[in-house]
Amino acid sequence: MTVLFPRRAGLSTFLAAALLLPFAASAAATDDKVGAYSPTTGLRSPGISKAACSTYPSGRDINVTRKMYEIGQNRKISAKVMLAMFEAGWVESWLNNLNCGDRDSIGIFQMRPSMGWGTYEQLRDVTYQVNKFINVALPLESRYSTAGQLAQAVERSGYPYRYDQAQATAQKYINEAARPYGTILTLWTKLGGVNGSLGGPLAAETDYASGVRYVPFSNGIAVKYSRGTFAVWGDNYRYWAAGGGLATYGLPTMLPKRAAVSPTGTSGLTQGFQRGWIYWSSKTRSHAVMPAMQSTFVKYGAEAAVGFPVGATVTNSTGTTQTFEKAILKISPTRVTTKVAR
């Protein structure tokens, strides 16, 4: 295969690239013999067979593109590297994790085990492939003015112009992969979308903790885990985050719901978390009733009797105390409870 280098690169650059970079060994030259590429645009034609593939996908695999975007996002790669990765994936496989290709080329980027990209098993793994592409692209990024040139520097194709030609399509699939999807999309839409409670998405869905996926929004977050898909937004989100978030309160176990009206006429919302209930009203703002106080709060009639919390649950050597609109509730170290009217 012919190795193409930038014209103005010095001899040391040639040697370093030849010694350090594996070759993707794109199957482009072989594909041209069977008419897989348009002779006028240089882009792959949908449905045309690829060398060693009985059929070729006619469109992207959304699960592949979402994983590509998520990995790139989490590694904080630039827009250029992201675009180069999607351009290369589109040209080489139409953004599919192929198990076939010219000679031993496989995967999204048609990387070859025989050329040092990894074992066959590694190159069947989307996460491995994407990280491998990024690892090679990052040191080269500053040398090239376009994403397509960067993609070519990684892929080393005999047809370098194809990657820049795929820019519009690649960007379309980047934009698609960045959007909310699944149950988080359903909830976000229900809450009013970009103009609703959560606002616009700030990043694509990714891992938040073990078994937990989330999307950050401009006014809160949405999470999905074994108990369901829930969101926290507005003052409650800011209170939750400032107070320690997951470590302090755990995940939400419900969406906000209307709380009972307090004896002072205060109305607002309550939301349950794995560790605590957060109450909100425009008058009292957000405060949590923590597990140490929950049973006592309920015993004395909850918000309908003692009002909304106006301070935090405080536990120390003298017991647990919390102030509400109409009472101060106390629990002694021996679990004796008292209510002091306000």
Features:
342 residues, 3 domains, four-stranded antiparallel sheet, disordered N terminus
Strand content: 15-25%
| Secondary-structure-derived class | alpha+beta
Q: Major sheet: size, sense and barrel closure?
A: 4 strands, antiparallel
Total of helices: 14
Tell me the strand order in the biggest sheet. 1-2-3-4
| Spans where pLDDT lies below 50 across 5 or more residues | 1-36
In total, the number of strands is 12
Task: Give the distance, in angstroms, between the N- and C-terminal Cα atoms.
Answer: 84 Å
Q: What general outline do the C-alpha atoms trace? A: elongated
Tally of separate domains: 3
Chain-averaged pLDDT: 87
Rg result: 28 Å
Q: What percentage of residues falls in helices of 4 or more residues? A: 25-40%
SSE pattern, N- to C-terminal: HHHHHHHHHHEEEEHHEEEEHHEEEE
In short:
With about 350 residues, the protein is of the alpha+beta class. It is built from 14 helices and 12 strands. A 4-stranded antiparallel β-sheet has the order 1-2-3-4. It has a 4-stranded antiparallel β-sheet with strand order 5-6-7-8.
Structural account:
- There is one protein chain.
- The chain has 342 residues and is of the alpha+beta class.
- It folds into 3 domains: 11-178, no CATH class; 179-248, no CATH class; 256-342, no CATH class.
- It is 35% helix and 16% strand.
- The chain contains 14 helices and 12 strands.
- The chain has helices spanning 11-20, 28-33, 62-74, 79-93, 120-123, 126-137, 147-155, 162-165, 167-178, 182-190, 234-242, 246-249, 291-299, 302-306, and strands at 206-209, 212-217, 220-225, 228-233, 257-258, 269-273, 276-280, 287-289, 314-316, 319-323, 327-331, 337-341.
- The protein has a 4-stranded antiparallel beta sheet with strand order 1-2-3-4. A 4-stranded antiparallel beta sheet has the order 5-6-7-8.
- Helix 4 crosses helix 7 (147-155) and helix 4 (79-93) packs across helix 9.
- The chain is elongated, with a radius of gyration of 28 Å.
- Residues 1-36 have low confidence and may be disordered.
